[in-house]
Amino acid sequence: MAGTAASWASGEILRLSKVSEKETPNTERLEWKHDNKREVLFVEKQVIVSDPDVKSVMRSVYPEHALSFEVTPEGAKRLADATTDGPGRMRIAILIHGEVTARWCPHQW
């Protein structure tokens, strides 16, 4: 459930959580595989957005394989609140079936 600790064990499909700079009791040590590299991420157990917050999902294959999702108003507010830290090193991990599939840096655009 969004806004609570990680719930992968309960069958959660999608989860967005902040990435911490260091390992703490409130993070999970997860590996992100991308571009033939592996990066260790310390993903906070606190969930920002998860399955109940998803309104719709679209898959595209051109120009790249990608998923786009629209969140509910409640999910949008939580995501907005979570990304108000301002520019810098703030990152969000996107997990599907408990596996990091992407890392998003909201303030890099």
Layout of strands and helices, then pairs:
Blueprint: E1 14-20, E2 27-34, E3 37-44, E4 49-50, E5 54-60, E6 66-71, H1 73-82, E7 91-96, E8 99-104
Antiparallel strand pairs: 1-3, 1-4, 1-7, 2-3, 5-6, 7-8
Which tags fit this structure?
two-stranded antiparallel ribbon; six-stranded antiparallel beta sheet; globular; 109 residues; 46% strand; mainly beta; 1 helix
Summed up:
This protein has one helix at 73-82; strands at 14-20, 27-34, 37-44, 49-50, 54-60, 66-71, 91-96, 99-104. The chain has 109 residues and is mostly beta strands.
Provide an overview of this structure:
With 109 residues, the protein is mainly β. It has one domain. It contains one helix and eight strands. Strands 1, 2, 3, 4, 7 and 8 form a six-stranded antiparallel beta sheet that branches. A two-stranded antiparallel sheet has the order 5-6. The longest helix has 10 residues, at 73-82. It starts with 13 loop residues before the first strand and ends in a 5-residue tail after the last strand. 20% of the residues are buried. Mean pLDDT is 82; it is low at 1-9.
| Mean of residue pLDDT values | 82
Q: Report the portion of residues in β strands.
A: over 45%
Fraction of residues in helices?
under 10%
How much is the radius of gyration in Å?
14 Å
Number of separate helices: 1
Could you say how many structural domains there are in total?
A: 1
The geometry reads as globular
Following the backbone from N to C, one meets helices and strands in this order, namely EEEEEEHEE
Low-confidence sequence ranges: 1-9
Q: Structural class of the helix and strand makeup?
A: mainly beta
Count of distinct strands: 8
Question: The biggest beta sheet, please?
Answer: 6 strands, antiparallel
Please report the distance between the alpha carbons of the first and last residues: 29 Å
